[in-house]
Amino acid sequence: MIRRPPRSTQSRSSAASDVYKRQPLDLRTSTVKQITSIPTISYDLAVRIKKSIKQNPDIKFLEIKDSLFLSQDIFKLLELTTFLSDNNEKKEKKNIKLDVRTRYIPLINKIKGFEDGKYLGSPFYSYFRSRVNYNDSRAGILLTKDIGEKNLTEFIAGYLKFKTLGFDITLGDYTIHSGMGNILWNQYSFGKGAETIYPAVSFISNTNSYLSSSETNFFRGISIGFDLNLSNYLNFKNSVWLSSRNLSGTLDISKDTITSVYDDGLFRTETEIQKKNNLSEKILGFKAELNGRNFILGLSGLFFNYDKFINSQSRAVFYGKNGYLGSLFYLFNIGEARFAGEFSLDNNGKLALRSAFNKSYDNFEFALNIRYFDDSFRSPFGFNFGDSPEVNNETGIYTGLKWKLSKSIIISSYFDFFKTLARTFFIPYFKHGQDFFIQSDWNIDTDSYLRFRFNYESKTDNITDNNGIRNYIQKAKYYSRIEYQRKLSNTFQIRLRSDFSFIHFVNIKPDEIGYASSLEINYKPFPALLIQGRITKFDTDSYESAIWQFESPVPGYMYSQVLYEHGWRAYVGFRYQIFKSFNLAMRFSITSKSNKNYLGSGLNQIVGNQDKKFFLQISLNI
Does the first or last residue of the chain, that is N or C, have fewer Cβ atoms within 10 Å of its Cβ? Predict the structure, then answer.
């Protein structure tokens, strides 16, 4: 999954999907549009889920997974965010729902920022979020501060969403998704990985309220949506929105220009605070779609206006003072085949083009994704399913497949070939590479599964040898994993996992290896209590050969933990539900490295050889 460690390491997709963990969607009664509002669930997948339910009204949740060849990651996401009601069951709908969540993370370690007096605020992270739903109306507010920041309200987000006179109106903070994501997307979406089909043909069109602690890539203002039914099978969907936000960046006072846009969302030091709210952004956007039974045709556009000229070398941000982005997109479903694409232009005539094809057979699926992005195309709200998440300076061809060898074995694989159209920031000429992935998932029985994974990637990189000379080579990475999970009883489950990495530097410097082995335990002595623990031993030559592990210490908070050099990591935690409405979650983790006096670098450098963290979260749902 594409991930950016934000101000609290919570990704936007985790925050958005958490909405549905508390208020899961019924796949039987939800519309395709509602299902695609779950992060990483594409239009194509939502259509196929609804089709499966329509063809077999008595279908079970696990049967959906088997019939659609869903990966373990996608299936887990659906399990957390949706449910499948009984075909004949009629449930009484609650008119009002309220949920409140607070999170507290104290600083346990001694870090350089506080020891040197650079961090001006308090040594803890705080988070408060409240949401209320009343019939078709929704409202929410979020207050957060990071470790080292001064104010409990350092970042505030909120929204009010309601329907009136046929209009869907959102006031406050929201995100817009459109087409395949050239100009409007959620950057925290599935990238290349175990799910080899659906991300390649992702096509989503919706407006979501925004309540994440990440301070980037959202709109603030008003959004209005309305539908016009032209016939029983033809619908015209429209959205317009106006956004006005203050952004942060480095200001060149002499020229009154912004030399870099600051999107870390951390304001702990005088230098960081000086960057705050230096730039005013105003955006007018629109989206129009013609929806038929088997097709979608649409166009979208954004008009940007800033109060200062942005002169940043980063291709992930807008360049200039004003301009626009426009897109045409389409989706066609023809039997079991799907065709999707998007064509986009900016005000300088730079092009972004993406086209995808997906075909499903009884036991086999195939996907093809072709992309071309001009080197100077800039799309602040777009997302690239490729080598880089930025929608520029890349062309490539991706092919993905899934093969159901038997009822219990699924093979997933992809191959991606890519290259840049111009030099990059670190490579002074064209960069190219290839990426190959294969994984087998074997459900041995109802209580256990075995997974094998292999990944090979070769691409141009900038390497400094032992003599201090810079070299440009095709660095090769080999990565493998073996994972076994077993349900020993109704209350006890274990997972064993080993990861291996090998980095080949083409004789420029010594090759590197890395490994990590872990044991994970989940114990549920009774339905309201879950106890979790994991211990990992790791040893890598450097950060280059690091191993990454996904973790979710408390509900709604997710990140990838990097393990490198020599040491071990362990955590223990529990989640306890009281009276069906009160939830308590706690976790303590520790990472220890051998022969180290300091961990990390910069102002976050830890004094000592251990990194300790404690999480406390309380949730109330009424």
Answer: C
